[in-house]
């Protein structure tokens, strides 16, 4: 999700209000319910271009946008959900699409806060990453889940068979929303984004690690500790096995790649010999 300056400011204000409502004394509405209702609004705005434009028109009267919102949703969503949405639509967004992006981000934040409260954010992050690897390793599965012409009920049935009762409720809600309303994202890219959001919620950077063999828990702990010392910030590991590396590791953090694999060293040697 790329937001311009005005939209970033609008999202920051709405997110602050959301956190005040779910984490402060006013948190009568649970973050899970709030997140689900915000996702419903994302669906509404995605399906109604005229409504999306009305709420995302920065040149219109903010009070008028609030009145329109209340006329549509008052009594149909929780007061906390309406409060967050009022903050969002009263702000100036760079475009109507970025407003919808912002509401989607707020929904995801609410669900991740729910997982954080329950002490399950680690599990959600790990499940999102592992699901991403499963789908990436099965192109037919990704094709079916991503196909815009595919049956929504069929996609949901396939997804339920894959994750229902096997993952955290927050993971299930996030992935279901991604599949039902991808908004231009492939399932693999969406799952990678969601895992990154979970890591960010924990104030950690993510190291994507490819290893020739499965790493033990102790090896992963030592690697995470070493990277944390090197980068002077907490580092979370997302590890996948890639036998094509022959041996060693490839570590990617942001745009930086550390290639300590046998395959990488052989490729470098071939380049040196060719040069």
Automatic annotation (TrEMBL):
Location comes to: Cell membrane; Membrane
How does the record classify its membrane topology? Peripheral membrane protein
Pfam name, any one: OSCP
Positions of transmembrane segments: none
Please report the name of this protein according to its UniProt entry.
Answer: ATP synthase subunit delta
Gene Ontology MF terms in the entry: proton-transporting ATP synthase activity, rotational mechanism
What InterPro entries does this protein map onto?
A: ATP_synth_OSCP/delta_N_sf, ATPase_OSCP/d_CS, ATPase_OSCP/dsu
| UniProt-listed NCBIfam families | ATP_synt_delta, PRK13430.1
Which UniProt keyword terms apply here?
Answer: ATP synthesis, Cell membrane, CF(1), Hydrogen ion transport, Ion transport, Membrane, Transport
Q: Give the family from UniProt.
A: Belongs to the ATPase delta chain family.
Q: Spell out the HAMAP family in the cross-references.
A: ATP_synth_delta_bact (MF_01416)
The reply on keyword Transport is yes
Q: Which Gene3D superfamilies match?
A: N-terminal domain of the delta subunit of the F1F0-ATP synthase
GO cellular component annotations of the record: plasma membrane; proton-transporting ATP synthase complex
């Amino acid at each position: 999700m790329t937001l311009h300056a005005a939209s970033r400011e609008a999202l920051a204000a709405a997110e602050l209000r959301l956190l005040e409502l779910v984490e402060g004394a006013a948190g009568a509405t649970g973050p899970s319910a709030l997140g689900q209702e915000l996702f419903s609004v994302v669906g509404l705005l995605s399906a109604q271009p005229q409504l999306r434009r009305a709420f995302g028109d920065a040149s219109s009267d903010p009070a008028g946008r609030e009145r329109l919102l209340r006329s549509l949703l008052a009594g149909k969503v929780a007061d906390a959900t309406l409060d967050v949405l009022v903050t969002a639509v009263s702000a100036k967004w760079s475009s109507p699409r970025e407003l919808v992006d912002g509401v989607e981000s707020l929904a995801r934040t609410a669900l991740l806060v729910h997982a954080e409260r329950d002490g399950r954010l680690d599990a959600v992050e790990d499940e999102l990453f592992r699901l991403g690897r499963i789908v990436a390793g099965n192109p037919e599965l990704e094709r079916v889940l991503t196909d815009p012409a595919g049956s929504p009920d069929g996609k949901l049935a396939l997804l339920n068979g894959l994750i229902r009762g096997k993952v955290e409720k927050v993971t299930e809600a996030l992935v279901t929303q991604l599949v039902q309303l991808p908004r231009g994202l492939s399932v693999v890219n969406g799952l990678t984004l969601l895992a990154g959001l979970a890591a960010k919620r924990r104030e950690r950077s993510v190291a994507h690690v490819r290893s020739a063999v499965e790493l033990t828990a102790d090896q992963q702990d030592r690697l995470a500790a070493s990277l944390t010392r090197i980068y002077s910030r907490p580092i979370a590991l997302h590890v996948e096995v890639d036998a094509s590396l022959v041996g060693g590791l490839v570590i990617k953090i942001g745009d930086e790649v550390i290639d300590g694999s046998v395959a990488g060293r052989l490729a470098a040697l071939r380049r040196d010999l060719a040069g």
